[in-house]
Fold this sequence. Notes:
- This protein is mainly beta.
- The chain has a domain at 1-139 and 447-462.
- It has 3 helices and 35 strands.
- Strand 29 and strand 30 (374-384) form a beta hairpin.
Amino acid sequence: MKLYRLNLLAVAISTLLLSACGDSETTIVEKDPIQTDPDDGHDHSDGYLIESAGRLAVSVADSNEVAIYDLDNNQLLQNIAVSFEGGALSYSAGFRYATVTHRGQDQVEFIDGGLWREDHGEHLHDYKQAPALSSYKLMGSRPTHLVKHDGKLAVFYDGNSETGEVSSVEVLSDTDIANQTQSLPAFSYSVNMHGVAEPNGEYVFASIRRDDALSTSANKILPDQVGVFHLHDDEYELDHTFVESCPDLHGAAQNEEVQVFGCSDGVLVTQKDGSEFTSAKIANIDSLDGLRVGTIYGHEHLHSFIGVASQHGGGEALLVQINPEENEMDDIDWQPLTDAHPVSYAFSADAEHFLILDNLGYLTILSAEEHDGHKHWAFDRRVDISQQDVADMPDNHSFSMTVAQNGHFVYIADPIARHVLKLDLESDATSEFELNVLPKAITWLGIAEHEDDHADEHDHDH
């Protein structure tokens, strides 16, 4: 693995070129991060905070460009060219950066959305600047799964059997990206695999691929064990391997207490309990009928998880609720419409709802209900998010969704109408704004609001 950076001369030249290419319709917020002045016309509770809906990164179809929109006025801020087209768009652990993963080209790029918050001890301090492509890149063999948790991003590189490149993991924060940290905490394997890593404080819970003769996986490229890697002097070392197997491991999530990994015969639950590591297996329920949970969603404020079982490549999806505390798995009836296939899933920022966006242009909203002392996810309502004929969907495109982390809003990109719909999950009120590009994927960027933020504001005034 290498970290690639432009040399200083190239950066200086590119900066001059970019500043000379301004468009009269481009909204430039601020060129440099500056302290928000209490008398700058903004409404700040303590002089250091910025009120903003955030920004929206939109990857442009059949292009290497990512468009950044200001969600305060729905105007285009910048079109930013990355190195290759077709990269997977997501967000960094602190929501400041858009991540663009070029798996086939062995690199991850970062776009600074231009909004972030720093903890200065006595107060929280917000910053705002124009979006820009970072010269900082991660380079490694086949970066695939990027997992975020508690301010850290774990990048799992699958490796490449044809070239003899092995799997590896790097862990970084938004501060590492901003500082262009040269040497990141990392570890490597002795073999390639299609794996996953869950960062958790000074530990990483990650997949392990055993020798094919020992592996219980039907597809040997998939691992069948989980290990705990502990950070020592900027390097991770394997501290513990769970005995319980997880054949054909794929998909993982965690909350504040446990990690859950998808296996062909159920899910594996792991936990650090004091100085001990424990694990338990929750078997598949009969209704899965041979399908396996290959995607798992969790939230730090929830005790349960939601798993998705479907055929490889999509199609009909079965949802299950995973309850580690009770060692149970239960069906979730999300009441899909005929021929509806999910294209995106997400929890709302406050974890009050689970969202399912389908190919027919509907957003199904699940809510947790109390029954016999237990909470269970159940169908709440369905919202029609497109007035277009879905038969007109451009080839190899679909609706895409992202959730704001500073309110009750979800944003949905419609490639047919070429617009973004904003939905208020509290009132179901909607609004739209037009795009001047064909959207491939979208992701929200900005300053996330957490319960701890509000507590800190009261104390000092994530």
